[in-house]
Amino acid sequence: MEDENYMRRCIALAKKGLGYTYPNPLVGCVIVHQGKIISEGWHKKAGESHAEKEAIEKVKDKSILKEVTLYVNLEPCNHFGKTPPCSDLILKMKIPKIVIGTVDFNQKVYHKGIKKLKENGCKVITGILEKECRKLNCRFFTFHQKKRPYITLKWAESKDGFIAPKDQNEKYWLSHPLSKQLVHQWRAQEQSILIGVNTAVIDNPKLNLRDWYGKNPIAIVIDPKNRLPNESFLYKNNKANNLLSITSKEVNFKKGELKPKDFINFLYENKIQSVIVEGGLKTLVFFIKNNLWDEAKVFKTKINLNNGLISPKLEQKEKSIISVGSDKLYTYNNL
Fold first, then answer.
1. How far does CA 22 lie from the centroid of its chain?
2. What is the spatial distance between Cα 216 and Cα 300, in angstroms, rounded to a whole number?
3. How far apart, in whole angstroms, are the C-alpha atoms of residue 50 and residue 277?
4. Beta-bridge mates of residue 146
């Protein structure tokens, strides 16, 4: 129980980095001495100190590190990247006991950090709150295990089951302002946001953060015929480094349809670890039809449209239902 409590703290610390650490995982660390936490750290941004180093450096009297237990939600790295291996630092400080939530499925790390610590005399315990630790880094693990990004679908639908009016030029807003704010929070947590070119042309969206603080996600547009207008918000504001257009030059299209494998390979090659898909209908159906999604978030509102584009349908049973303002948020997992 004590180990689990400290691991929960690691997870809580790691979550503070959500949206900022790509392409690195979310990691939190606590150092315990004589039953008390004496130091904490988390990975804040790629290129900056890892959680273990940050926690170790905060300990003023380094001599007591020979008597502590270090808790970390993810296996310490054992390779050189932008920073030196955390396993080497742990050994240098002679930390005798390390408690780990889950192994790291990145092949550069997988079991190598644990092996090195054990071979050098450390007591290593693994699998503490393993399910929760794996869920925390579902984006990172999906990328390294399945060679594709973690994909979240999101849409709002009317009370009578429509995603948009029949006249797509008609301006409308289905969801409650609190739902809109929550969506912007989600955008801050994901590496990228994806829409189809029809949505880009009709709505001219910004796809950025306006109701939440954080880093704007990379905007991805499926655009087989290169129709995205030069005057669009996405083109003008993001062309430099935050817009990824998927045209027929990058990916093979068959009669205007994406080939799922080519599309996923394209995202993987561009190191996209997570994407939130916000429409339109054709794009959402593409992901559902090809079973290319991990999570879906659907706002069901109190507004009736009477007619229009029928909302996508999921076969899975909802995992949870919560109220957001006047809306109901249904969450689904594709297990």
1. 9
2. 26
3. 30
4. none
Cα-based distances in Å from 239 to 61, 121, 194: 49, 52, 15
* Exposed / middle / buried, residue 7 (Cβ in 10 Å: 0-12, 13-18, 19+): buried
pLDDT tens digits along 269-321: 999 999 999 988 999 999 999 999 999 999 999 999 999 999 999 999 999 99
Residue type, 203: D
Task: For residue 230, give both structure tokens.
Answer: 């030069």
- pTM, two decimals, is 0.91
239's enclosing H/E stretch is none
Alpha carbon distance 78, 111 (integer Å)? 9
Cis peptide preceding 229, ω within 30 of 0: no
What is the residue whose two structure tokens read 């050189």? 80
* Pair 45, 73: CB distance under 8 Å: no
pLDDT tens by residue, 35-89: 999 999 999 998 899 999 999 999 999 999 999 999 999 999 886 666 778 999 9
How far CA 172 is from CA of 179, 265, 305, 313, in Å, comes to: 15, 35, 10, 21
- Write the DSSP symbol of residue 47: T
Give the whole-angstrom CA distance, residue 102 versus residue 111. Answer: 10
CA distance 76 to 100: 8
* Tokens 């994406």 found at: 258
Residue matched to tokens 């709505």: 203
Would you call 185 helix, strand, or coil by DSSP?
Answer: helix
* β-strand partners of 33: 36
Specify the residue for token string 């959500």.
Answer: 18
Question: Could you identify the residue written with the tokens 């929760």?
Answer: 132
Task: Tell me the C-alpha to C-alpha distance, in Å, between residue 167 and each of 3, 201, 226.
Answer: 57, 14, 24
Neighbours of 267 (CB within 10 A): 23
Beta strands in the chain (DSSP E): 28-33, 36-42, 69-74, 97-102, 123-125, 150-157, 162-164, 192-196, 218-222, 243-246, 253-254, 257-258, 274-277, 295-300, 309-310, 320-324, 327-333
184 and 210 in contact (C-beta within 8 Å)?
yes
Q: Point out the residues that are catalytic.
A: 52
